[in-house]
Design brief:
Blueprint (H helix, E strand, L loop, with lengths): L1 E8 L6 E13 L2 E11 L8 H13 L11 H12 L15 H6 L11 E7 L1 H12 L2 H7 L4 H16 L4 H10 L16 H13 L1 H15 L7 E10 L24 E9 L4 E8 L8 H12 L12 E4 L6 H9 L4 E3 L10 H5 L1 H4 L1 E2 L16 E7 L6 E7 H30 L6 H14 L1 H4 L2 E7 L5 E8 L10 E6 L6 H9 L1 H13 L11 H26 L7 H8 L3 E8 L5 E7 L4 H10 L8 E4 L1
Parallel strand pairs: 5-8, 8-9
Antiparallel strand pairs: 1-2, 2-3, 4-16, 5-6, 6-7, 9-15, 10-11, 11-12, 12-15, 13-14, 16-17, 17-18
Length: about 625
């Protein structure tokens, strides 16, 4: 068998169309002739590689073991795609002996040797069907097409994004998953003609180059599918992730405070704006040592340009911004007010001491938050929250005083650990002095000073005294706590808001939506393989992070649709459940020695069918049959 190229010309337009076919040489009435085996469409493949592809297709059709080298194994995957998706594949019949076609069409039941039945080429199809369904719902393919992506690039982009959802890892890992473990290539309309890693990397670069265009289009699509509340609310936060290698040529890789506790690695920072249900809106990538407050000006500028909030001709109502104290400095709060952005924040400036009297009577005088779903804390009791609204005379803002019993327990536990560590270090130094291992007063003071500086906040609660004998020699260190009572402000915090029309409970609930973007970051890190980053240049690093953001668009849409039907399972659970739904080739031998190959999708189990029914999913794959 070999591949030939056919060219046809449109007489009206003069345009030339090219298609490729797999043919074989036969003799008819003693004369050589070519017989068509299958149409291949248009191949984006160098002519020198046609022979290897034809060899792989022939062995795919005949069920024989391919003799291709390890470096050419990707031709087997291409062959599987072409055979599975070709509309003629159901009609292909190749036999070891000549058989009459009319006889084979009449066969309904065949005597099969049960001992010859086996399965091969098992590929995952369940998670792929769910992702494919959401991909079509978000019109992802059309969005990419409008951004200038070719059909092959759209197929590769789909593989990159789905790979991050189904089998998280690096781009190299995604290629291996796509070729060897996934049936994504067998879903009609999904065609990838080239498998080398450079094409995948080039497509990931192009995705990042079109980042703003893609994010605006996806946000508008999500907004039409899942309309938000009456007031537009945007959550804003930052996170960082660590990178492997030195990254010497990467301008984004910087040392800083790692939220993953990997202080031995350079970092990169991802900022994201999301709706109050966690749906992504826009993202940006910064250096690993980026100061969080400094990013707000850039965020406001991007919001103005993306959605036209700065247009004088068509003034739009600006969204409410919700962010934590890491970003909400005094200057940033003033900046949001000057640019007309309403906000709900906890500022960096701690004003709890001003309302100490109110906090002391919180349980008796504050409004109790009545939660429908109660969760027990690690201590076995409920996390009760109490709130009170404070009107600010002569101000456009208001404050909501909040007291959380769970937060109080957490802060007390953290403070207790810090105090225990501090006391242990001081007592350890005192034992060294008593045993005579350190006698020099200057050295003792130096060590003591370092410990006091390292635990500066805790040290302020204690009186530290170096006891000396009559000769002026150090004997021990005495440590005494100034106040036996715990911090009176534990569990207390204050929310500042421009929404004076909301009551204290509504304001508190609005601020607590910030947990959705924190959940988004956890999902990206734990479920979507955003870390670690192996790329050594800033362009590929940014592309890697952006693919994860695109994958989260699909993840959030899946969970959003299921939650509306009362299914609160997270994607990690759905992915595990669906992984048992696979596509296989079932092979068996009949009495004449012919081997029948059925490439088919397994019947969904009840747990699979439940998910498919809720999402309205139908299996678009086809069953292919071949007899050899």
């Amino acid at each position: 068998m070999y591949i030939r190229e056919n060219k046809t010309k449109n007489k009206k337009t003069g345009e030339t169309y090219i298609k490729h076919q797999l043919v074989e040489s036969v003799r008819v009435n003693g004369k050589p002739s070519q017989r068509l085996i299958m149409n291949l469409g248009r191949l984006d493949l160098p002519r020198l590689q046609w022979k290897k592809l034809a060899h792989a297709i022939e062995h795919q059709l005949t069920g024989q073991v391919s003799l291709l080298d390890e470096n050419d194994k990707h031709f087997e995957d291409m062959a599987l795609i072409l055979v599975s998706n070709n509309e003629l594949s159901n009609k292909i019949r190749m036999t070891k002996e000549k058989m009459d076609d009319s006889q084979t069409d009449d066969i309904k039941y065949l005597p099969i040797d049960p001992g010859s039945v086996f399965t091969e080429k098992t590929r995952s199809i369940g998670p792929e069907l769910v992702c494919h369904n959401t991909w079509e719902l978000l019109a992802f393919d059309q969005i990419l097409k409008d951004s200038g992506f070719t059909k092959n690039q759209r197929g590769i982009a789909k593989a990159l994004i789905f790979g991050r959802l189904i089998s998280p890892g690096s781009e190299r890992h995604t290629i291996e998953w796509y070729r060897k473990r996934s049936a994504l290539s067998e879903i009609p309309g999904h065609e990838v003609n080239r498998f080398d890693k450079n094409v995948f990397y080039e497509t990931s670069d192009k995705l990042y180059e079109n980042k703003d265009r893609l994010e605006v289009a996806l946000y508008k699509k999500q907004q039409s599918l899942f309309p938000g509340d009456a007031h537009t609310v945007f959550l804003y936060d930052l996170t960082n992730t660590y990178m492997e290698g030195n990254c010497l040529g990467n301008k984004l890789a910087k040392r800083g405070h790692c939220k993953s506790k990997r202080t031995d690695c350079p970092l990169i920072t991802l900022s994201m704006i999301a709706r109050n249900d966690g749906t992504p809106v826009a993202s940006h990538i910064y250096k690993g040592n980026q100061s969080e407050p400094e990013t707000l000006t850039d965020v406001l500028d991007r919001l103005d340009s993306m959605f036209g909030y700065d247009s004088p001709q068509l003034p739009l109502e600006k969204p409410t911004l919700v962010m934590d104290r890491g970003i909400a400095t005094h200057d940033n709060v003033a900046r949001m007010e000057s640019r007309g952005y309403p906000y709900v924040v906890i500022t960096r400036e701690d004003h709890t001491d001003e309302y100490l009297a109110e906090f002391e009577k919180a349980r008796e005088t504050f409004t109790y938050i009545d939660k429908k779903k109660r969760k027990l804390s690690a201590y076995g009791d409920e996390n009760n929250v109490y709130v009170k609204k404070i009107e600010m005379e002569g101000s456009k803002t208001c404050r909501v005083l909040c007291f959380s019993e769970g937060k109080a327990r957490k802060e007390t536990a953290i403070a207790g650990k810090k105090e225990t560590r501090f006391v242990t270090e001081i007592e350890g130094l005192s034992q060294f002095i008593q045993k005579g291992r350190i006698k020099n007063i200057d050295k003792i003071n130096t060590r003591l000073g370092k410990k006091l500086e390292r635990h500066k906040t805790i040290a302020e609660r204690y009186v530290i005294t170096l006891v000396k004998n009559e000769a002026g020699q150090a004997q021990r260190i005495e440590i005494t706590r100034k106040n036996k009572e715990s911090n009176p402000c534990s569990g207390c915090y204050i929310i500042d808001s421009t929404h004076k029309e909301l009551d204290e409970v509504e304001t508190w609930k609005l601020y607590m939506t910030l947990s959705h973007i924190e959940k988004s970051f956890r999902s990206m890190k734990d479920k979507l393989g955003i870390r670690p980053v192996y790329h050594q240049n800033d362009q590929r690093t940014s592309a890697h992070l952006f693919i994860t953001v695109l994958a989260y668009h699909i993840l959030s849409a899946i969970e959003n649709r299921l939650s509306k039907q009362g299914d609160t399972r997270q994607w990690s659970t759905l992915r595990d459940v669906l992984s048992t739904h696979t596509r296989n080739t079932v092979a068996m031998r009949d009495k004449d020695g012919n081997t029948h190959h059925y490439r088919t999708t397994g019947k969904p189990e009840d747990v699979h069918y439940d998910i498919y029914k809720k999402l309205g999913i139908k299996d678009p794959t086809i069953t292919t049959v071949s007899i050899f």
